[in-house]
């Protein structure tokens, strides 16, 4: 970092989250957007010109930002991670929907630069995940069903956050080893199932609900994002924290454990 000023690059600058990050950066003291790119031509966002994503490597070399924030799609995120590794620029990515091989590619980039990947930058989701782990461990034998709801333009299903929560549940409840995505026809529930339900409707920002049921009682744990600003703020906190780290693989929990942005 150059003194107290954090210089960021933003990919997917024309998308819902890219715009939100640029707008949040404009509102935050000590943060400047040095590079903003998109695959397709995009008008300036909050006064920041948006360049062609094909020029990212040149722009990273000429502008030398402290960190790149990426909310795009899996293929692009992997390509941008490779550009970051080559340019020595730390990467924060909130992109979801990666295949396992693409995660391996991201991890390879983290040999060269710090890479922070998070399926959700809301602090409430971090708290939800802790609560779900505790509840699932405390309620052995209870059925678990997860429902996520997002806007009608979301591409990947189930959401990245839902997959993270599923991993949390499976980690503390080894008896739950079969993910069942929706049910249809003659489909009685078997004990090892975790039901997974993805709803797409309107402009819902993002909701995740975990239902635990058994022993004549139910427990529901729900997070609702009010707007995308909550994700953008978390991503900026992560960027500020990551800029001075050593190469390696990080999560949003590392930022929160350290007390948030420095
Ligand atoms: N971790 C978190 O907290 C959050 C994560 N997300 C995730 O961020 C990602 C982007 O979400 P959102 O901003 O709503 O999406 P949008 O579709 O609104 O924006 C995606 C942007 O990235 C560009 N892009 C580049 N490569 C790809 C690609 N391979 N597929 C799709 N778009 C691409 C698009 O450019 P062009 O128009 O030129 O194609 C577009 O500008 C998703 O994976 C989403 O799940 C979203 C919210 C919070
Ligand atoms: O695409 C979105 O919008 C969101 N994606 C993330 C996910 O897949 O979990 C996070 C958030 O729920 C919004």
TrEMBL record:
<dbReference type="Pfam" id="PF01113">
    <property type="entry name" value="DapB_N"/>
</dbReference>
<feature type="binding site">
    <location>
        <begin position="160"/>
        <end position="161"/>
    </location>
    <ligand>
        <name>(S)-2,3,4,5-tetrahydrodipicolinate</name>
    </ligand>
</feature>
<feature type="binding site">
    <location>
        <begin position="118"/>
        <end position="121"/>
    </location>
    <ligand>
        <name>NAD(+)</name>
    </ligand>
</feature>
<dbReference type="InterPro" id="IPR000846">
    <property type="entry name" value="DapB_N"/>
</dbReference>
<keyword id="KW-0520">NAD</keyword>
<dbReference type="InterPro" id="IPR022663">
    <property type="entry name" value="DapB_C"/>
</dbReference>
<dbReference type="InterPro" id="IPR036291">
    <property type="entry name" value="NAD(P)-bd_dom_sf"/>
</dbReference>
<dbReference type="GO" id="GO:0009089">
    <property type="term" value="P:lysine biosynthetic process via diaminopimelate"/>
</dbReference>
<keyword id="KW-0028">Amino-acid biosynthesis</keyword>
<feature type="binding site">
    <location>
        <position position="39"/>
    </location>
    <ligand>
        <name>NADP(+)</name>
    </ligand>
</feature>
<feature type="active site" description="Proton donor/acceptor">
    <location>
        <position position="150"/>
    </location>
</feature>
<comment type="pathway">
    <text>Amino-acid biosynthesis; L-lysine biosynthesis via DAP pathway; (S)-tetrahydrodipicolinate from L-aspartate: step 4/4.</text>
</comment>
<dbReference type="InterPro" id="IPR022664">
    <property type="entry name" value="DapB_N_CS"/>
</dbReference>
<keyword id="KW-0521">NADP</keyword>
<dbReference type="GO" id="GO:0008839">
    <property type="term" value="F:4-hydroxy-tetrahydrodipicolinate reductase"/>
</dbReference>
<dbReference type="GO" id="GO:0050661">
    <property type="term" value="F:NADP binding"/>
</dbReference>
<feature type="active site" description="Proton donor">
    <location>
        <position position="154"/>
    </location>
</feature>
<dbReference type="Pfam" id="PF05173">
    <property type="entry name" value="DapB_C"/>
</dbReference>
<comment type="subunit">
    <text>Homotetramer.</text>
</comment>
<feature type="domain" description="Dihydrodipicolinate reductase N-terminal">
    <location>
        <begin position="7"/>
        <end position="121"/>
    </location>
</feature>
<keyword id="KW-0963">Cytoplasm</keyword>
<keyword id="KW-0560">Oxidoreductase</keyword>
<feature type="binding site">
    <location>
        <position position="151"/>
    </location>
    <ligand>
        <name>(S)-2,3,4,5-tetrahydrodipicolinate</name>
    </ligand>
</feature>
<feature type="binding site">
    <location>
        <begin position="12"/>
        <end position="17"/>
    </location>
    <ligand>
        <name>NAD(+)</name>
    </ligand>
</feature>
<comment type="function">
    <text>Catalyzes the conversion of 4-hydroxy-tetrahydrodipicolinate (HTPA) to tetrahydrodipicolinate.</text>
</comment>
<feature type="binding site">
    <location>
        <begin position="94"/>
        <end position="96"/>
    </location>
    <ligand>
        <name>NAD(+)</name>
    </ligand>
</feature>
<keyword id="KW-0457">Lysine biosynthesis</keyword>
<feature type="domain" description="Dihydrodipicolinate reductase C-terminal">
    <location>
        <begin position="124"/>
        <end position="256"/>
    </location>
</feature>
<protein>
    <recommendedName>
        <fullName>4-hydroxy-tetrahydrodipicolinate reductase</fullName>
        <ecNumber>1.17.1.8</ecNumber>
    </recommendedName>
</protein>
<dbReference type="GO" id="GO:0019877">
    <property type="term" value="P:diaminopimelate biosynthetic process"/>
</dbReference>
<dbReference type="InterPro" id="IPR023940">
    <property type="entry name" value="DHDPR_bac"/>
</dbReference>
<dbReference type="GO" id="GO:0051287">
    <property type="term" value="F:NAD binding"/>
</dbReference>
<keyword id="KW-0220">Diaminopimelate biosynthesis</keyword>
<dbReference type="GO" id="GO:0005737">
    <property type="term" value="C:cytoplasm"/>
</dbReference>
<dbReference type="GO" id="GO:0016726">
    <property type="term" value="F:oxidoreductase activity, acting on CH or CH2 groups, NAD or NADP as acceptor"/>
</dbReference>
<comment type="similarity">
    <text>Belongs to the DapB family.</text>
</comment>
């Amino acid at each position: 970092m150059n003194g107290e000023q954090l210089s960021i690059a933003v990919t997917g600058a024309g998308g819902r989250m890219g715009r939100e990050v640029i707008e949040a950066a404009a509102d935050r003291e000590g943060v400047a957007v040095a590079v903003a790119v998109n695959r397709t031509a995009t008008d300036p966002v909050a006064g920041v010109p948006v360049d062609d994503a094909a020029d990212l490597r040149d722009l990273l070399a000429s502008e030398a930002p402290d960190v790149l924030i990426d909310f795009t799609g899996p293929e692009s995120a992997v390509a941008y991670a490779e550009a970051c590794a080559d340019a020595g620029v730390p990467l924060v990515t909130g992109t979801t929907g990666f295949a396992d091989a693409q995660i391996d590619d991201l991890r390879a980039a983290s040999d060269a630069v710090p890479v922070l990947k998070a399926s959700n930058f809301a602090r409430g989701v971090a708290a939800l995940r802790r609560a779900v782990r505790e509840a699932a461990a405390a309620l052995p034998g209870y059925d678990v069903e997860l429902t996520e709801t997002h806007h009608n333009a979301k591409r990947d299903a189930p959401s990245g956050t839902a997959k993270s929560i599923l991993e949390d549940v499976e980690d503390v409840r080894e008896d739950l080893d079969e993910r069942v995505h929706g049910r249809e026809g003659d489909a009685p529930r078997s004990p090892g199932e975790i039901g997974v339900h993805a709803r797409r409707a309107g402009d819902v920002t993002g909701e995740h609900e975990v239902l635990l049921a058994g022993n004549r009682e139910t427990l529901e744990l729900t997070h609702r994002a009010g707007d995308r600003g909550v994700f953008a703020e978390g991503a900026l906190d992560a960027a500020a924290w990551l800029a001075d780290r050593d190469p390696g693989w990080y999560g949003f929990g590392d930022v929160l454990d350290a007390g948030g942005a420095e």
